[in-house]
Amino acid sequence: MLTSNRQIKELSLQVRQIIDGQEVDLRDNREGAFSALKDDIQALAQMKHEQVEILQKDQKVLKDALADISHQLKTPLTSALVMIDLLESAPPEKREEFIRSIKANFKRVEWLIQALLDRAKLEGGTIEFKKEKVSSLEVIKRAIDPLGIQLELKKLTIEISGESLVYCDIRWTAEALSNVVKNAVEHSPEGSTIFIESGENPLYTWICVTDQGPGIGREQIAKVFHRFEASGSEAGYGIGLPLALAIMRGQGGDIEIKNCTISQAAVVTLKIYPPEI
Q1: I need a surface site. Which of 127, 210, 225, 232 has the fewest CB within 10 A?
Q2: Residue 242 pLDDT
Q3: How far apart, in Å, do the first and last CA atoms of the chain sit?
Q4: Which domains does the chain have, with CATH numbers?
């Protein structure tokens, strides 16, 4: 069947509508070269639509990440600037204290930027997890190594028990666990102990972190994984636990949080499921 000028003009108009962002269905389910051409254009239009959606999503993730970083950096940076201003006129015995405070604030800034960028990568789907079987003790070691200074400042000790093989991306799982332990450090009384235990059951392997703090109120448990909403202290920022959950769920795992039935202290459990057969 010959293609008429009317059909060509109609197709040209429809293509222009697609270029302008309108949704047009070109399919006519008929045989022939012209119908095949319309189907090909329809497929290209669908690809364009999907790519636009991906770009819009990426732009939103980036915009939200930049807004979060800008907002959350204000407190530690302002505190550091105030300390720097005071440092010049401070008596010698106070200068060391101010310098320690300035260093601590910049450490918080460094951690916060990395945490927010990691969260943006996870939300944007740009992280590929490389899972393998590793010892839970190796994951725990990697998680607590960067926290030595915070533990020392609060005179905290960590008690580790149990061992199991976990199927995970060790780097990212250690990052998730590190954020959980960091949260425990911030809420632990000075001189107390943080307990990290690992084990397994028929459904999953687990790594559990228990502090000796006051626990979490029922109304707060529902919010702890919502970014910035559950930060009860300036040091908490409300990003660590949401980031940890995003990492675990990105690998097909999960995090459970509750209060200990005996001491009422917070208990946070990372759940790692075996590979699908």
Answers
A1: 232
A2: 84
A3: 53
A4: 132-272 (3.30.565.10)
Separation between Cα atoms, residue 258 and residue 221, nearest integer Å:
7
Give a three-class secondary structure readout of the chain. CCCCHHHHHHHHHHHHHHHCCCCCCCCCCCCCHHHHHHHHHHHHHHHHHHHHHHHHHHHHHHHHHHHHHHHHHHHHHHHHHHHHHHHHHCCHHHHHHHHHHHHHHHHHHHHHHHHHHHHHHHHCCCCCCCCEEEEHHHHHHHHHHHHHHHHHHCCCEEEEECCCEEEECHHHHHHHHHHHHHHHHHHCCCCCEEEEEEEECCCCEEEEEECCCCCCCHHHHCCCCCCCCCCCCCCCCCCHHHHHHHHHHHCCCEEEEEECCCCCCEEEEEEECCCCC
**Which tops the pLDDT comparison, 201 or 2?**
201
Counting every residue, how long is the chain?
277
Go through 27-56 and write b for each residue having 16 or more CB atoms within 10 A of its CB, e for each that does not. Answer: eeeeeeebbeebeebbeebeeeeeeeeeee
